[in-house]
Amino acid sequence: MNPELGLFALILATCLALLQSVVPLVGSYTGRLRWMSAGRSLATGQFIFTLLSFSCLVYAFLTDDFSVKYVASNSNSLLPSIYKFTATWGGHEGSLLLWILTLTGWGQVVALRSDKLPPELGARVLSVLGMVSVGFLLFILVTSNPFERLLPFPVQDGNDLNPLLQDLGMIIHPPMLYMGYVGFAVAFAFAIAALMGGQLDSAWSRWARPWTTVAWCFLTAGIALGSWWAYYELGWGGWWFWDPVENASLMPWLSGTALIHSLAVTEKRGLFKSWTLLLAIATFSLSLFGTFLVRSGVLTSVHAFASDPERGLFILAYLVLVVGASLTLFAFKAPEIRSKITFSLLSRETLILVNNVLLVTSCATVLLGTMFPLLVDALDLGMISVGPPYFNTLFVPMAMMLAFALGIGMMLNWKKGTVSWLVQQLRWIFLASVIGGVAFGFMYGDKFVISEALAIGLVIWVVLAILKDMYNKTRNASNLFAGLKKLKPSYYGMQLAHFGIAVTFVGAAMSTGYSLQKDIRMNPGDTVELGEYAFRFDGVKEIQGANYMANAGIISIFKDQKKVTVLYPEKRVYKVKGMPMTEAGIDGGFTRDLYVALGEPLGEGSWAVRLHIKPFVRFLWLGAMFMALGGLLAVSDKRYRVRLKKKAGIRSKTAKGKIAGKAVAGGRA
Amino acid sequence: MNPVRKQRLLLILLLVAGVGVAVALALFALKENINHYYSPAQIVSGEAPIGQKIRGGGVVVPGSLKRDPGGLKVTFKVSDGEGEVEVEYTGILPDLFREGQGIVGTGKLDKNRRFIAEELLAKHDENYMPPEVQNAIDKAHKSEGNQ
User: Fold this and answer.
1) Residues B99-126: pLDDT tens digits?
2) Cys bridge to A229: A149, A169, A246, A623, which one at CB 3.0-4.6 A?
3) Domain range spanning residue A94?
4) What secondary structure does DSSP assign to A477-503, as a single string?
C-alpha cells in the first residue's frame, strides 16, 4: 500500500504544479491578487506531497520492501541501515525524486519569502518554478517511476547498492549538488519573471542575488565533496579526472560564478542587465544539460547505471523547450531592459567583464571537450576521446589569468580608475609576487617547475591584494579594529571567497607538481623509501564487514626512523554482487597526505601496492569550503533583508496596478 | 568618432580578439589531444598508426594473462572476435580487470604491433562493456555473418 501512496502523492504534486504554473501567471497579467497569491499555497502543497512521496520511498527502503522494483535493484537486507536510507537516491529514479524534492523545497522557501516581493514578480517567479517542476514530475511519472512493483513475483532479496556508493561522502554529495543545480532554477525563474515584466532594476538584483549566491555555495560544496570522494574512494589518488560527469557539474559552476559577479554589477551599477539575464538562463540550462548528460546514458560512468534512450530523449526535448522558450522571450523582451550607463575602460566594471569573459570561455572549452566525442560519434566519424591534457592546457592558463585579473579588479573603483593609482597600489604587490613565486620555484622540490612557480606567485598576488584592499578600506578609521568592524558582511564574504580561490590554488599546484608516487610489488617485510618517508609492508589480514569480505594490508610508515602511522588499505569484495573494490588508507595532514592503496595479490604473500605522498592536497577542498562559506556570509548582509513597506497597501484592491509599478519603481535606471 | 563610440568599438574589438584567440587555442589543443579508438581487428590489419597515442581495447582473452615475476608488468591479449592484440601494462590493474571482461586503455603501438598501455580504464560496474568494444564486437559479428 505504501508505494501506491507515494505514487499517488506524486501525481497530486504534479496536478498542483500544473496549477502553480498557470494560475499565478494569469493572475499577474489580469491583476487578480487572489490568483497571484494562490501560488504560495500551491507551492506549499506541492512541497508537502513531494515530501510525502519521498518519505514513502525511504520507508520502502528501510523496511526492505523488495516488491518495489527500485528497492530491489538498489538495496539488500544485509545493507547497513544508514546506507539503506542513502540508497534512496543511489539510483536513477530515486535521485530524480530527490531532485524534485529539492526543487519543491526551494519553491517553498521562495513562497515563504515572496511577501517581500512585488506581487506580480513573486507570482511570476513561482509560476516559472511551477513549470520547471511540471517538466521533472512528468519525466519521473512517465519514464522513471520509482514505485513500480515487481508483482506478483517479488524477489527474495535485493541486488544491493553499488559498493562505491556505500560511503559517508555519498550521503551528502548528491543532495548538496542538487541544492546547487536546482537553486539555479530560482535564479532562472527570477530572470524569466523580469523578462516578462520587462523591468529589471537594482531592487530586482537585490532579490535575485541571495538566491543565486546560496545556490552557488551549495554547488561549490557539492563539487568539492565529489572530488574528495573520488580521491579517497576510487583508489587512484587523483582529485579531478575531467570525466564528463564531473564536467557536467563544473559547467554550471563556471557560468554560475560569472552570474554572481555580473549580478553584483547589475545591483551596484545597473549595468550588464541583459547579460545577467542571459547568464541566468545559461546557468540553469547547463544544469539541465548536466542532468541530460548524466541521466540519458550517452555517457557511461559511475553515475549512470541504468540508462535508457527514452529518458535521454525526454530530457533533451525538455532542454530544447526550456532553452528555446527562454531565449525567444529574451529576444523579444531584452531590448526593453537595456542599460544606458557608461563606464570608463579602466574600472571595476571592465575587470568584472574580463572575469565573465574568462569564465564563460573556460565553460565553453569544457563544453567543447565534453561534447566533441559525442558529436563525432553521432556523426559516425569514429570513436574518439578527449584526454585530460586538452582540458589542462586550456583551463589552467585561464584560471591563472582569472586570478591575475582578480587582484587588479579588487584595487579598481567602480566607474573610473586611473593607471597611476593602480600602479601605485599594485607595484610592490606585483614585485613581491614575482620574487615570491620564483624563490618558491627554486627552493621547493627538486627542480624549477614554471607552472607551480606561477601558481604560487598568483597566490601571493591574490592574498596581498586582499590585505591591501582591507587596509585601504580601514585606513580612515580611528584604529584598525574599528575599521574592520565597520566593513559589511558582504565585503568579508567576498574576500573570504577570493581567499578560498588562493587556497585552492595552493592545493592544486602543490599536489599536481610535487606529488610522489610509486606503484610497486611488495613482499611482507619489504620497506620502500619515498621522499622523506619509509613504507613497510607487514602483510595482509582478513576482515569481515557487514556485507563484504576484505583483505587489509598493514603498512607502517616511518620518518627519520620514527613511526608516523600505520595504515590499513583494504581490498574488499562485496558479497551480493561479488564486486571488488579498493578502499585506500589515508593519513591526512595539513601539509601532506600519505595515501596507500592495495592492488592485486601477486602470489606468495606479495601484493601490488600503490604509495603516494600528496603535499597540501587538503587545501583544495579547504579552499572550496572557504568559497562556499564566503558566499553564505555575503548573503547574511542586511541589505538583502529590506522589507517592502507597502505590504498593507498591496492588499487594498484599488491600488493594485499602481503599487506594483511603484515597488519596481525607477525600473530602467 | 565620439568617445563613447570609440570606447565601445575598443571593447568589441577586444572581445572579438579574445574570442578568436580562445577558439584558435581550443581547436589546437583539441587537435593535439584527441585519441582515436582502434579495435583489435584494425590494429592487426595495420590500420592503426605506430608510435602515436591511441585508444585500444577489447575483451581480455581467457588464459592469456601473464605476470612478470619480479615487478608489476603484465601482458595479456585482447580480442574483438576478429583480431587479437597483445597488451603490455606496468602498474596496478583496475579493480574490475578480469579475463573475459571488456577493457579500454590509452597507449601506443610498438613496432611489433603490441599495445603498450599507459593507462587502463577502470569502470565501476561488472556488467559494463565499453561502447567502443561493444561496437567492435558487433562489427566483427556482422562481417562474419556476411561471409
Assistant:
1) 888 888 889 999 888 999 988 875 655 5
2) A169
3) 1-166
4) SSSHHHHHHHS-HHHHHHHHHHHHHHH
Closest CA to A197 of A187, A189, A186: A189
Closest Cα of chain A to B118: distance in Å? Answer: 13
Across the interface, whether the CB atoms of B95 and A581 are under 8 A apart is answered yes
If asked whether residues A574 and A468 sit together in one domain, one would say no
Beta bridge partners of B116: B88, B108
B19 contacts in A (CB within 8 Å)? Answer: 361
Cα A521 to chain centroid distance, Å, stands at 39
Whether residue B36 and residue A384 make contact (CB cut-off 8 A), yes or no, is: yes
Do A39 and A125 belong together in one domain?
Answer: yes
Compute CA distances A45 → A54, A121, A129, A529, whole Å: 14, 20, 14, 63
Together in a domain, A115 and A138:
yes
Residues of A in contact with B124 (CB under 8 A): 162, 164, 301-302
For residue B83, what is the DSSP state?
-
Contact A519 B34 (CB under 8 A): no
Among the candidates A108, A133, A166, a domain finishes at A166
Residue of chain A nearest B135, judged by CA positions: A383
ipTM of the shown complex: 0.81
C-alpha cell at A430: 606585483
pLDDT, one tens digit per residue, over A149-180 is 987 788 888 888 888 888 888 778 888 999 99
Cβ pair A406, A355 in contact under 8 A: yes
Distances (CA, A) of A202 to A256, A262, A270, A351, A507: 19, 12, 6, 20, 37
DSSP class of residue B92 equals P
Pair (A605, A509) in one structural domain: no
In chain A, the number of structural domains is: 3
pTM for this model (two decimals):
0.90
**Min Cα–Cα distance to chain A from B112, Å:** 24
A125 and A56 together in one domain: yes
Q: How does pLDDT run across A30-77, given as a tens digit for each residue? A: 999 999 999 999 999 999 999 999 999 999 999 999 999 999 988 999
Q: How many other CB atoms are there within 10 angstroms of residue A572's CB atom? A: 22
Cα–Cα distance list, A169 to A86, A223, A225, A662, B64 (Å): 10, 12, 7, 48, 38
State the DSSP H helix or E strand holding residue A299, giving kind and residue range, or none if neither. none
CA dist., res. A129 & res. A106, Å (int): 9
Residues A367, A318 contacting (CB under 8 angstroms): no
* Same domain (yes/no): A457, A572: no
| A472/A486 same-domain check | yes
In contact, A579 and A589? CB cutoff 8 Å? no
Q: For residue A619, which of A512, A500, A498 has the smallest C-alpha distance?
A: A500
What is the spatial distance between Cα A40 and Cα A32, in angstroms, rounded to a whole number?
14
Instruction: Tell if the CB–CB gap between B92 and A599 is shorter than 8 Å.
Output: yes
Is residue B126 within 8 angstroms of chain A, CB to CB? yes
A439 and A560: one domain?
A: no
